[in-house]
Design brief:
The protein is an alpha/beta fold. Helices cover 21% and strands 31% of the residues. The strands form 3 sheets. Strands 9-10-11-12-13-14-15 form a 7-stranded mixed sheet. It is globular, with a radius of gyration of 18 Å. The mean pLDDT is 97.
């Protein structure tokens, strides 16, 4: 098995929205903002090469939305999903499986593209891949509540089903089998219904793709919960449950949105779970 960190781009979101009720004087210590209170965030995916399978976890924001849409998120940097795959020796057609942690636009937008210059036909980017969600989250996303409606964009989601490439991971427990030999899934419901947190067994380590359960090292303290979460109190309970296990078992946490830190470990302290070490994925490969 081989793992690759795939940067799909960088964007900006309001620091207050990303930290909820936590005052700026506290969150800006780890996530400094610009004059408009906007912080830079990564959209980092994980590529897993396991025998004849090439599994991509999340696909970033994509490039098919309007200029007005993108103007709200200040996309920047010179990397993309395509360029990052190419840098590691792969193309979109090599991908055999795409695991979508959840269907918010910054996690799945890169899954679908325009098929023609007139922008009237949409198609999956990964023509040879199976796409993996779960039934509970798919129902939630395709029948969106008013709070999340702006994050669940039909053009990012429905073409996957229409292509016949959609598959579901079966949620049987808090931690469920994924169907892949070296991947289990931790299900979390605080951010959105049945968000999938992949847990990869790799050379004696457990590497966890944290998605929006833990967007950055700045979100490790339990009260540091995003304003985007639909059930913030539940997020706190899920974070506590997960991070205590992560500290006890020395999980390696792969951070999707942290623009500086790619991976980290956590430790138990008198003040609760805190950051232990930060490092690059390549340092453990």
């Amino acid at each position: 098995m081989q793992l690759y960190s795939i940067i799909t781009g960088y964007f900006k979101l309001d620091g207050g929205a990303m930290f909820g009720v936590v005052p700026k004087s506290l969150w800006e210590r780890t996530n400094p903002s610009d004059t408009n209170n906007m912080c830079t965030w990564a959209m980092r995916s994980l590529l897993i090469q396991d025998n004849d399978q090439l599994i991509l976890i999340d696909t970033g924001i994509g490039n098919k939305q309007s200029a007005k849409f993108f103007s709200h998120y200040y996309l920047h940097g010179d990397v993309s999903l395509k360029s990052s795959l190419k840098e590691n020796g792969f193309s979109e057609d090599d991908i055999t499986d795409v695991i979508l942690t959840h269907l918010h636009f910054d996690h799945c937008g890169g899954s679908v593209e325009w098929a023609n210059t007139e922008k009237t036909i949409l198609q999956p980017v990964f023509k040879n891949a199976k796409f993996w969600s779960n039934q509970q989250h798919w129902n939630w996303a395709t029948q969106p509540n008013n709070r999340e409606k702006a994050s669940f964009l039909a053009e990012n989601i429905l073409p996957i089903e229409e292509s016949g490439q959609l598959n579901f991971i079966n949620r049987t427990d808090r931690i469920s089998k994924s169907g892949f030999s070296n991947i289990d899934v931790f299900f979390a419901d605080g951010h959105t219904e049945s968000q999938m947190i992949p847990m990869i067994n790799y050379k004696g380590n457990k590497i966890v793709f944290m998605a929006d359960l833990l967007p950055s090292t700045g979100h490790i303290p339990l009260p540091y919960v995003m304003g985007y979460d639909t059930r913030p109190l539940l997020t706190m309970d899920e974070k506590q449950l997960f991070l205590e296990q992560a500290a006890k078992n020395n999980y390696i946490l792969f951070l999707q949105h942290d623009s500086v830190n790619e991976c980290c470990t956590v430790k138990q302290t008198e003040k609760g779970i805190r950051l232990n070490q930060c490092f690059k994925l390549k340092d453990i490969l």
